[in-house]
Design brief:
Elements: H1 5-14, H2 28-38, E1 50-55, H3 58-79, H4 86-98, E2 105-112, H5 123-147, E3 151-155, H6 162-169, E4 175-184
Antiparallel strand pairs: 1-2, 2-4, 3-4
């Protein structure tokens, strides 16, 4: 334990979001390793209130990709304090036509409310803690994927169309979309994005 701590820190520091993917199959053994890393994440109340939908079928991938596109356009045109102008939105539409965010595999992380751990009085906390558990699991998957040479990007915007998405993909009842990962071999080499200095985000007591 701790023998590869330097490698782990460098892995975390080097990870970046990938939005353009090679359309290559991912071996089952690699996919299994990535998913298994996910379920080793911490889980609130020991509940393991997560469920993951792995989309490999080409037609379903195209359906999900369309939800990414539609959600992204809502985000860019209506949600931002400074929404994009029409010309910029058209550039995004062109990038979607060219395959941005189109991956050989998607992993949707859902909060599974078929597994309950708290009383109804604390339902809000159970929801929040469950979202945290699913998010931690997806982060584990992102890091394990990066270690195996795969790229990922977090996909939040399909949440904006959740009920329609659940119907289109026939996702299990009593589940809630938390986030999803696009997964595949990178077809780009983006630069690491800078972060705010630590002193702007950390306080000591």
């Amino acid at each position: 334990m701790g023998a590869n701590s330097h490698d782990l820190i460098e892995l975390i520091r080097s990870r970046r979001s990938i939005r353009w993917f090679k359309q290559e199959n991912i071996p089952e053994e690699d996919l299994t390793r990535i998913l298994e890393a996910g379920i080793r994440a911490p889980t609130a109340s020991g509940g393991e209130q997560w469920m993951f939908a792995v989309i490999k079928d080409e037609s379903k991938r195209k359906v999900f990709h369309d939800f990414i596109r539609r959600g992204q356009m809502i985000y860019l045109s209506r949600m931002l304090k400074n929404p994009l102008k029409e010309e910029e939105l058209r550039k995004w539409e062109t990038m979607f036509d060219k395959g941005i965010y189109l991956a050989p595999i998607y992993i949707i992380g859902m909060l599974n409310f078929n597994r309950r751990t708290l009383t109804d009085e604390y339902l809000l906390y159970e929801y929040l803690w469950g979202v945290e558990s699913v998010s931690l699991a997806l982060e584990n998957m992102m890091l394990s994927a990066w270690s195996l040479g795969y790229g990922t990007v977090w996909l939040a915007v399909p949440k904006l169309l959740e009920e329609e998405l659940k119907s289109a993909l026939n996702l299990p009842p009593n589940t809630s979309y938390v986030g999803a990962l696009a997964l595949g071999r990178p077809n780009e080499q983006p630069q690491l994005r800078p972060r705010q200095p630590l002193e702007s985000s950390v306080i000591f007591f």
